[in-house]
Amino acid sequence: MALAVLPSPASFPPHSLLPFSSFPKFRVFHSSWSANPVVPRGSLASCCSGKKSSRRGRASKSNEELCHELREFNLAMGLPENRVPSMKELCENGRKDLANIVRRRGYKAITELLLNSNGESHSGKVLEGKQASINGNLYETAGEDTELYQDWAPKAHEQHNQNEINHLKGLLDQKEAELSQLKQQIENEKLALSNLHAKGMAELGDIQRTIAEKDAELHAAEENLDGLKEVHIDYWANGQTVEVTGSFNGWQHRVRLDLHPPSGQTNPPGLRKPLLWTTVLWLYPGVYEIKFIVDDHWRIDSQREIITSGGITNNLLRVDG
C-alpha cells in the first residue's frame, strides 16, 4: 500500500540533507513542504483504502502487517509511531478495517504489539525510501539551478568586466584631458618666459650699449681733461655783478665772478675804490679773446693785453701749455 506522505525534516540524517539556501527553487519547495507536511485527511481515503480493504479487514491480519499499517497511518496523520489511533480517527480517515481489529483485540494488546514489534527498522526503511525520492528531486532541481547559474555567471562576469573597462576608459580619458590641458599651460608658460627672456636680453643689450657709450665719453672726457689748465681771472671794478665771457665758450655763456673778500683797508667817506672780483676757468692751452660785463655794461681790463679787430676791442687771454 503506497502513502502520499512527506516525512518531517527531523527524520532525515543530518549528513544526507542539502542546504536549502543554496538554490532559490529549494527554498520555495522547503517553505511549501514545511507549511503542509502531510496530505489532507480527505485524501487518505484514496491513498489508504481500496477494493481489498474490507476483505482484508474481515480476513485475519498477521501481527507484522497490522503493525506496519498502523505505523503508516500514524506517519500519514503525524501521530507518534507507537501510539494506537482511536477508532474514531481510523473510521474518519477510511480505515474501518483497522478500527474493527483494534476493537476486537483491545487497545492494550495492540499497544504492546506495537512496542514489541520491529517498528524502528520498518520506519527506517520507509524514511530511507522517502528520503531517496526527495534527494533525487533535490539533486534534479540543483542540476537545473546549476545550469542556470552556469549560463548566467559568465554573462554577469562579462558585464561586470565591461563596466569596469568603461569606468577605467572614462578615467583614462579624463586624465588624458587633464594632461593635455597641463601641457598647453606649460607651453604657454614657456612662450611667455621666452618672450620675457628675449625682452630682458634686448633691454640688457641696450643698457650695455649705453654703458659702453658712456664709458667712451668718460674716457674721452678724461683724455680731454688731461690737457685742461686752471686759469685764474681777476678784475677790479665797482658794481653789483661782474661777469666774463669770450671765445673760450663761443661768447654764448657768461661766467659770474665772485667778490673777493675785502682787505682790512676801508674807503674814506664819499670815496669809492674798485673791488676785486675773481673766478677760475679750465681752458686748453691757446690764445682767447675775453671781455667783462659790469652791471650789463661791456668793459675791458686796461691792465690786460688789448686787441682791436673790425672796430671791436677785447682783451687777450693767453694759456700756456
TrEMBL record:
Q: Which GO terms describe its cellular component?
A: chloroplast
Keyword Coiled coil tagged: yes
Is Isomerase among this UniProt entry's keywords?
no
What residues does the AMP-activated protein kinase glycogen-binding domain cover? 231-320
Q: Which InterPro entries match?
A: AMPK1_CBM, Ig-like_fold, Ig_E-set
Q: Which keywords describe this protein according to UniProt?
A: Coiled coil
Per the database entry, which stretches of residues form a coiled coil? 165-231
Question: What PANTHER family does this protein's entry cite?
Answer: PROTEIN PTST HOMOLOG 3, CHLOROPLASTIC
Q: What is this protein called?
A: AMP-activated protein kinase glycogen-binding domain-containing protein
Q: Taxonomic lineage of this organism? A: Eukaryota, Viridiplantae, Streptophyta, Embryophyta, Tracheophyta
